[in-house]
Amino acid sequence: MTSIPSVLFVCVHNAGRSQMAAAFLTHLAPDRVDVRSAGSAPADQVNPVAVEAMAEVGIDISAEIPKVLTTDAVQACAVVITMGCGDACPYFPGKQYLDWKLDDPAGQGIDAVRPIRDEIEHRIRGLLDDLGIPA
Fold it and tell me: Which of 90, 92, 96, 105 could form a disulfide bond with 113, CB atoms 3.0-4.6 angstroms apart?
């Protein structure tokens, strides 16, 4: 039995970028990747504009709740993708760490969030290719 890869997306508030990335990965590779997201300083709710932008592409993240980043979450994942959380993410040898430089959708309107969403989808598709998982 082959284990499925595990991916953790981390941004500061776990309210925009990391939520969108986790949703795209879950949507494009259901049951083929263990997906998690967390934030170093989680917000109270997911950014409503991120929810709107994802709804435009048929993905509902309205029920998601920002989660706090824990050491256990990092240890449980093979791939950790950070998105502007700086040094807040603990480092463990043997993990693959990627840092995706993406604009923060916080405080942005829908016209500014759409390109961020689209770039995240593009990077998720590349990640799936790297993992050898068809989208």
Answer: 105
